[in-house]
């Protein structure tokens, strides 16, 4: 992979922090020239998710084969047998189109991208105002079982410890404010 093409904008956060909503807002800002880096995953689709749009859904066996072939920039077994990762080909596609890649990615994956491309990456940790608010948001989505919500809350408590390693911590206690702050951050970084 070429290290001198475009920029990499990483948004990481615990589930329920609002990072996906912020990333979708940024993608609508044409002046930023962003394209979404679609992660690959071995997990089953949820709700109305579309292959090649929300994720590249691949089998567990294929995911492991692609790891062995070195086809990922980063990957992680986020939950047991649920792998997530960024394919090299995805970032190359975005850069070939003259755009910057924006990621909606787990904390460990975000840090791996930052370590591989330190000068090209802006790593933003989106933090909910509290664990309680995050749990409320997860329940309001109505996409997860009680067991999965508890698993996500426990994982979030671990993820908060990584916030200090990111370039910026963006507290999302007001979504409209967080969106504006994200635009300013990304716009400034792209102009560097």
Short structural summary:
The chain has 192 residues and is of the alpha/beta class. The protein is built from 7 helices and 9 strands.
Describe the structure.
The protein is of the alpha/beta class. The chain has a single domain, classed as P-loop containing nucleotide triphosphate hydrolases (Rossmann fold), CATH 3.40.50.300. The chain is 41% helix and 22% strand. It has helices at 19-27, 60-68, 88-96, 107-116, 131-141, 146-159, 175-191, and strands at 8-12, 34-36, 40-41, 56-57, 72-79, 82-87, 100-105, 121-127, 168-171. Strand 5 (72-79) and strand 6 form a beta hairpin. The radius of gyration is 16 Å and the shape is globular. The two termini are 21 Å apart. The mean pLDDT is 91.
Spatial extent as radius of gyration? 16 Å
Total number of strands: 9
> Mean pLDDT, nearest integer?
91
CATH architectural category: 3-Layer(aba) Sandwich
CATH topology: the name is Rossmann fold
N-C termini distance: 21 Å
Keywords:
single chain, Rossmann fold, four-stranded mixed beta sheet
Helices, strands, pairings?
Elements: E1 8-12, H1 19-27, E2 34-36, E3 40-41, E4 56-57, H2 60-68, E5 72-79, E6 82-87, H3 88-96, E7 100-105, H4 107-116, E8 121-127, H5 131-141, H6 146-159, E9 168-171, H7 175-191
Parallel strand pairs: 1-7, 1-8, 2-7, 3-4, 8-9
Antiparallel strand pairs: 3-6, 5-6
Helix pairs in contact: 5-6
